[in-house]
Inverse folding.
């Protein structure tokens, strides 16, 4: 994809973000931010019993790169297993957004990816605590 096509795709995802909006039945909600420029992303995940991300959403505000970047990156994560997402390297942001765009404002570009990774960590902690509570009951 050339730079012009990438910019068209970014504008499209900024104006019409995919998976945008609050998910009432989310198993985990996590908020991340970029204090340098005031970007905020909230990630909503619904995970099935097999550990597959069955639904994903986000909301937030900020620059085009943080919002469109989140839309593009999260689109690549929907339907994946928790393990697959945990194993995704940060390079997926460069692969998705391109090296030049990533270099302009890396913190903005990586915000959605980092927030998603932290949401997965939060879900893992919740599952572990739930498992401990369940074992205490038996």
């Amino acid at each position: 994809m050339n730079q012009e096509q990438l910019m068209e795709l970014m504008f499209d995802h900024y104006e019409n973000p995919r998976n945008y909006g609050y998910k009432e039945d989310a198993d985990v909600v996590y908020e991340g931010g970029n204090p340098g420029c005031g970007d905020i992303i909230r990630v909503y995940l619904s995970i099935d019993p097999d550990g597959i991300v069955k639904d994903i959403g986000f909301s937030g505000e900020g620059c085009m790169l943080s919002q469109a970047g989140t839309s593009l990156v999260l689109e690549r994560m929907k339907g994946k297993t928790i393990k697959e997402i945990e194993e995704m390297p940060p390079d997926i942001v460069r692969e998705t957004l391109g090296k030049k765009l990533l270099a302009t404002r890396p913190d903005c570009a990586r915000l959605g990816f980092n927030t998603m990774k932290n949401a997965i960590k939060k879900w893992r902690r919740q599952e572990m605590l739930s498992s401990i509570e369940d074992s205490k009951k038996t």
In short: The chain is about 55% helix and 20% strand. The beta strands are 28-34, 39-47, 53-61.
